[in-house]
Amino acid sequence: MALSGIQIYKMLPQTNCKECGFPTCLAFAMKLAAKQVELSACPYVTEESKKQLAESAAPPVRLITLKAGTEVKAGNEVVMFRHEKTFYNKPGLFLRLKASDADLAKKAAAADAYKVNYVGMDFTLDGFAIEADGDLSAAVKTVRGVSKRPLILISNDPAALDKALSQLAGETALIYAADPSKYETLADTAAKHKAVLTVRGDSLEALADLTPKIQAKGVEDMVLDLGGKTLGEWLTLSTQARRLALKSNFKPLGYPVIFFAGQNGPEKEPVYAAQAISKYAGFVVLDTFTPELAYALLVLRENIYTDPQKPIQVQPGIYEINAPKPESPVLVTTNFSITYFSVANEVEGSGLPAWLVVTDAEGMSVLTAWAAGKFDAERIAKAVKEFNLAEKVSKKRIVLPGHVAVLSGELEEELSGWEIRVGPREAVDLPAFMKQALN
């Protein structure tokens, strides 16, 4: 039985130390009861209280981790909508491969090598789902020869799974899938190899009836296959399961879910995958790999799972564009990723050399940061001095973004001996400005 906020409060130190990030122990207790924080945030809770609070402290959706050369985490989410707090563990994107495929190694190697850079971050696929329409053990060996990413093993044959999992010592793989007609042996196999087990049922009621039985067999880590053959069915089932876990603390459905996006053909796969990423898959299995499909889904996933209160940022510093020389101009911008890449891409595309000073504006754009007092003359001057820019250039000339021309006078006072120029308002106009005004 879940505890109320008042019951939890009585077990806390009641010191109001604020080290948990909340002004009072009562406020923290209320958040803990609502599954919006973790008990570990309180540094002074006693071991006795930890045991009593274990149920209330446990996340409503169990954290599942697949491990190999890399890790893929799903679950541990505490909200229905990202604006309430944020989503934490991005759904893993897996490519389904068939064990009988003659080009298995080639396909796995191509997908494993895929990497694309998006606003300073490298995106890749997360792993492979190997379907046992042939020798599963041989297929695992083949894939392991070209990739160390986590695996999903698709088979209902406990003997084949046992043989394949024996090759994955030290790893945590996902088995697909146990259903009411044949779950005992698969649960035993999962328990033996400490694997995660997918549970499949015809309805949410069937899943809720099956997960406690599998748990009684010694398998704590599970993933749910909710079914759903259409967008509407999947949306309904995934929302219901998530809401029951989060709002009603319904433990039998408190697990991440898996979705096979290619079940209705390649033409619908991108749409189905996009919805699964949005609502609320923990693992998404693709049947098709193309760079354009992977890129679109990876960017969508990043946008959804970016904390809306913490914009994507780049590291503050001096960036060299087109091999600048000491006499090349110095441009200034903030560390909001979109602002940085807008400026950097326009200058790089023009072929003109420049030094780009990226200041720490807490991830805000130029105008937003200026309005919030995070992008001012003092911060710009501090960045110029901290990064030793004077040692890199012979012509001390800085170009301010046009939107903050008002800072030019203050910056002249902060940076004695530097020429302050005001550039265009939009990044797209930088190349023309650099050619006409800075030569």
Detailed description of the structure:
The chain is of the alpha/beta class and 439 residues long. The protein folds into three domains: 5-57, 3-methyladenine DNA Glycosylase II, Chain A, domain 3, CATH 1.10.15.40; 64-304, Dihydropteroate synthase-like (TIM Barrel, Alpha-Beta Barrel); 317-437, Rossmann fold (3-Layer(aba) Sandwich), CATH 3.40.50. 37% of the residues lie in helices and 17% in strands. It has helices spanning 5-11, 25-33, 47-52, 54-57, 104-113, 136-144, 158-165, 184-193, 204-216, 231-247, 269-278, 291-304, 337-350, 366-371, 377-386, 408-414, 430-437; strands spanning 64-67, 71-74, 92-98, 116-118, 121-123, 127-131, 151-154, 174-178, 196-200, 222-225, 257-260, 283-286, 317-321, 330-334, 354-359, 397-400, 419-422. An eight-stranded parallel barrel has the order 3-6-7-8-9-10-11-12, surrounded by five helices. A five-stranded mixed sheet has the order 13-15-14-16-17, sandwiched between helices. It has a two-stranded antiparallel sheet with strand order 1-2. Helix 16 (408-414) links the parallel strand 16 and strand 17 (419-422). Helix 6 (136-144) packs parallel to helix 7 (158-165) and helix 11 packs parallel to helix 12. It starts with a helix and ends with a helix. The relative contact order is 0.08.
Q: Helix- and strand-based class?
A: alpha/beta
CATH topology-level name of the largest domain: TIM Barrel
- Main sheet: which strands, in order across? 3-6-7-8-9-10-11-12
| Largest sheet, strands/sense/barrel | 8 strands, parallel, barrel
CATH class of the largest domain: Alpha Beta
Query: Do you know the CATH architecture of the largest domain?
Result: Alpha-Beta Barrel
End-to-end gap: 73 Å
E-strand count: 17
- Tertiary shape: globular
Specify the CATH homologous superfamily of the largest domain: Dihydropteroate synthase-like
Indicate how many domains the architecture comprises: 3
How much helicity do the residues have? 25-40%
- The Rg value, from CA coordinates, equals 27 Å
Average predicted confidence as pLDDT: 89
Strand content: 15-25%
Number of helices: 17
| Low-confidence region ranges | none
